[in-house]
Amino acid sequence: MTTAGTAHETTTRTGPAAARQHSLREHNLELVARAVFEGPEPLSRAGVAAATGLARATVSTLVDQLVAARLVRELPAVTGGRAGRPAVPLVPAPRSVVGLGLEVNVDYLGARVLDLTGDVVVDRVVPGALHDSDPAVVLRRLGELAREVSDGVAASGMTVAGARLALPGLVDPRTGLLEVAPNLGWSTLDPVPPLGLGDLPVRIANEAKLAALAELAGGSDVAAPDSFVFVSGDVGIGAAIVVDRALFLGERGWNGEIGHVVVDPAGPRCSCGAFGCLEQYAGKEAMMRAAGLPTDAPLAALVALLTERDAAARGGSGVVARAGSAAAALPAGRALGSALADFVNLLDVSTIVLGGAYTELLPWLRADVEAVLADRVLAAPFVDLEVRAAQAGPQAALTGGAREVLRAVLADPAAWV
Amino acid sequence: MTTAGTAHETTTRTGPAAARQHSLREHNLELVARAVFEGPEPLSRAGVAAATGLARATVSTLVDQLVAARLVRELPAVTGGRAGRPAVPLVPAPRSVVGLGLEVNVDYLGARVLDLTGDVVVDRVVPGALHDSDPAVVLRRLGELAREVSDGVAASGMTVAGARLALPGLVDPRTGLLEVAPNLGWSTLDPVPPLGLGDLPVRIANEAKLAALAELAGGSDVAAPDSFVFVSGDVGIGAAIVVDRALFLGERGWNGEIGHVVVDPAGPRCSCGAFGCLEQYAGKEAMMRAAGLPTDAPLAALVALLTERDAAARGGSGVVARAGSAAAALPAGRALGSALADFVNLLDVSTIVLGGAYTELLPWLRADVEAVLADRVLAAPFVDLEVRAAQAGPQAALTGGAREVLRAVLADPAAWV
DNA sequence: CGCATTTGTTGTACGGATGAACTATTACGC
DNA sequence: GCGTAATAGTTCATCCGTACAACAAATGCG
């Protein structure tokens, strides 16, 4: 299995270091790599020079190193109807250096490999009921899956730069320990050694946090902005804060616990001990109960019920709902809006991305959420608040984890030359 | 008036730039300056080299430039009982480059000058009733005060690096406009030109945000940690988020509006239109009303009343209150604790600094605040939450503003060589 | 086919950090 | 008192990376 023993990933901030000559090289190497990776369309060496402000000669040597490191690839020179020597377009190298996303969740485990272009190279998701499971057994199974996938891509000549393991619980990014994952029934363990992935650098992170990073994918016109809040609704409700395309983790990465913001202190008691937490109104079980469904019904059942009600309302009265989209608003909407208003008042973000179950339920939530936000957010008159559905597909944490690995590669390309 | 026309201050992030040779110099110049300024005790050139990892030769040339720029000063060589040539201790230069803090608040305006050692060089606070005042008149008066102060220090050979104007309202740091300051009755204006301070770079900021920065002062053992939340209670309640010794402003600097976190949707109507905002429980007027005092009574009256009640409780029954410190807990405490719990759950901060009126009221708030936090913060079992009183003295925003100017100088010493 | 135009490369110059050698200044032992 | 060790600070040759200018390569156009 080909792994990257040389590429040590650095994210721990150990204070600013002395800048030597090679620091210049590292900085500019990253600058050039970013220009190539983040440009809306392929740039030539000359284009990179113009975009970065570096001299053409400098860019040439840097690009040559990136090409040698298999991070950047040259496309055939394109003679674009313009005078002059044709430019050589530079693009992220496909199928060369790849990132591995791993995840253990309540009802599945999976492994996904992305290459530098953002393409999914391998995708393996194994369903399973993993609440109250044995960590040793589950992690060994995931480890086997990971090795299988990793060996496969290595056999095709790709290099796995690292892996991120997404877990639905409190993760301490500094110690690498999982403190507690209530829905798995796990607590206080180091999940990396049981995977048995040798010297492949594996880091763990919270599932919702990595799912948020998946929203940054693609240069599509519906891509998330550089800063937003990602709220993932499921049995629990978690959030991640993304600032300038990076996770804002707070001191320990335990932020975004929006599920336990108190919406009404006179409300029902929550599992956390408090009364009237958001989770008691907008958690999956609460929404099911409010709709008259069993708490463990699948999300699809709720969507079907709501769709049916809409059709009945339209057909029966011929009147389309005030909001113009859905007649049957979920009672969760106002509670969610209230908690989000607190979030926005405290953090000043203007884009809210709703993920997890909320993605599909957004049509029945949007009107209430937006109305409450408009009422309750102080800066609302001065700001365009946007509430949007998550774009990343299912198991977004797998994609986000793989992307996070590649982001680290891009942040330090010098380690690969 | 000696101002720094050459020292343009840069805080707007315009994406990473190409690193040239002189970028190296700038980076290391900052590194050396930080070592001198932030070291617990004066370092010699050799000490700086050891602390930064730079070569002694490099440090020497950099220090010489800092000394020539009057940012660093050499103390007399100290023969410290050790063999070898005595070291020359380097310290921040006193009375050379200074920062000017300005403030307009409801009941005063003021100007304060700090030098690089953190010493207060000049301090001028003028009381006045400025609610519903005329911005043009007030800003002209403040401008006169500022020129007076500035001319004075310039006459003593000091250089004013810049100024920060603290205002109690919504400030857009990108446009430099004050959007609205309800308590002053001001809205949508650029307050800098009326000051008439010529080419002195003046930037404006929210008052609570700058007050938070004042907490970073001093190497005392009670100094605030690198990251904390600062909550300032007055008529309104504002908060600032400090991460790694820098303000975290969100997208527009309009975060920290904790005063309008909903504590109880069944509560009294707030001026913002919502019901049960924190301000309705823990704002100054609410606290006065709860204590049976007129809403415009001075804070001292409330403190006196509470102290008296404590004495009566102790003397009358001989029983000390459960919390061991104060018998008469303020009803505001639980509300404040609840809003802070939301804040901590959303942001993951472990230190909360209470400023403004809360500083003096903390003895009567602490027990309830800490109890609610322990109940409501999810990560409480894993984290040591600390609630402490603000350390900076009165008009903390003046100190914070001046410090912010000097922080910018320290971040770019190359502009001064 | 010659010329303008743009891309990419080569060679020289310059700025900045380095490490080794050197000077300056003290403490300590005899 | 004097030599030696130790530490601080400076000087100088060298290395490294970028910039600028000149040059080669490859195309469109008249």
Describe this structure in words.
The structure is a homodimer of 417-residue chains. The first copy, chain A, has 417 residues and is α/β, with parallel strands linked by helices. Chain A folds into 3 domains: 21-93, Arc Repressor Mutant, subunit A; 97-217 and 396-410, ATPase, nucleotide binding domain (Nucleotidyltransferase, domain 5); 228-389, Nucleotidyltransferase, domain 5 (2-Layer Sandwich), CATH 3.30.420. Helices cover 36% and strands 20% of the residues of chain A. Chain A has helices spanning 21-38, 45-52, 56-68, 135-155, 207-214, 279-282, 284-290, 299-317, 332-347, 357-376, 396-411; strands spanning 72-74, 90-92, 97-104, 108-115, 120-127, 159-167, 170-172, 177-181, 186-189, 202-206, 228-233, 237-243, 246-248, 351-356, 386-389. Chain A has a 5-stranded mixed beta sheet. A 5-stranded mixed beta sheet of chain A has the order 13-12-11-14-15. In chain A, helix 1 (21-38) crosses helix 2 (45-52). The longest helix of chain A is centred in the middle third of the chain and has 21 residues, at 135-155. The first copy, chain A, is globular and about 70 Å long. Residues 1-14 and 317-327 of chain A have low confidence and may be disordered. At the A-B interface, helix 1 and helix 9 of A face helix 1 and helix 10 of B. Chain A binds a DNA duplex (30 and 30 nucleotides) through residues 18-22, 24-25, 28, 44-46, 54-61, 77, 79, 81-88.
Keywords:
homodimer; alpha/beta; Arc Repressor Mutant, subunit A; Nucleotidyltransferase, domain 5; 3 domains; 15 strands; 20% strand; globular; DNA-binding
